[in-house]
Batch of 2 targets.
Target 1
Amino acid sequence: MKTKQIYYEDGYLKELQAKVLSITPARNLNNIILDQTIFYPEGGGQPCDRGMIGFAKVEYVEKSDKLVRLTVEVSTAYTVP
């Protein structure tokens, strides 16, 4: 699995359609992996982007190897069918 990092191609993009690759519950939040993202992860002393995925509020973004993990509120998150 790999997340395409669209934020490197267009840092001003506000919307993007992406496929959900996985959702993992974590306490009161869910971790979501997408096939591509415009959310910039935390790093180098810079805070991560925040925003919305549908009705899910993105609280935290981190990069690990080739994946970008978005942490969203459980109350507004969804599950993969």
Target 2
Amino acid sequence: MTRIAIITGSTRPGRKSPAIAAWVHQNAARRDDVDYEVVDLADFDLPHLEEPVAAAMTGEYRHPYTRRWSQTIAAFDGYVFITPEYNHSMPGVLKNAIDHLYTEWHDKPAGFVGYGTHGGTRAVEQLRLVMGELHIADVRAQVALSLFTDFHNGTELVPGDHQVKTLNTMLDQVARWANALAPLRATYGRQTPGAKPTVDESRRSDRMEGSRS
């Protein structure tokens, strides 16, 4: 069965992402064609990236926490990212978690649930820029939860019916793309963790290393 991860994008105390993840999972679980699971970044305690070699180079990881994160992400066929908006972008902890890996993300779809004073739309905009480099197919529909209209007193999640409709549209798109991309995941010459990178990926990795140095 197709497996989709619902990834919480914040770890700070008082965060709203667990409640939103539960809402997404509650609606998604009504489907019988896909298995959904919440993946909470707070459960992985990833530090700032400390792997000596970029993930795009080899996919071999020195640290046990990276290997655990890699195994978790690689096991899914698609993702729903839940992200707040911090200063016109995604939280650093989410970008850091994404950057720990590379090929594990390949040939899979992603949907987005943003939240904030502007519905997290600018955070999702930044996420979409990252998806292309990771060979992720980002779907068009996205949920934008407003702290003013979708939360009671700014704390309790009370999304309107239109948000549920948009969520279901997004979940439909993620499921369809997960199935459509399955042949690529099975036959495309992408590298599994630990494999030697192709020439194209090596060149791309050199650019990544240069940007991080």
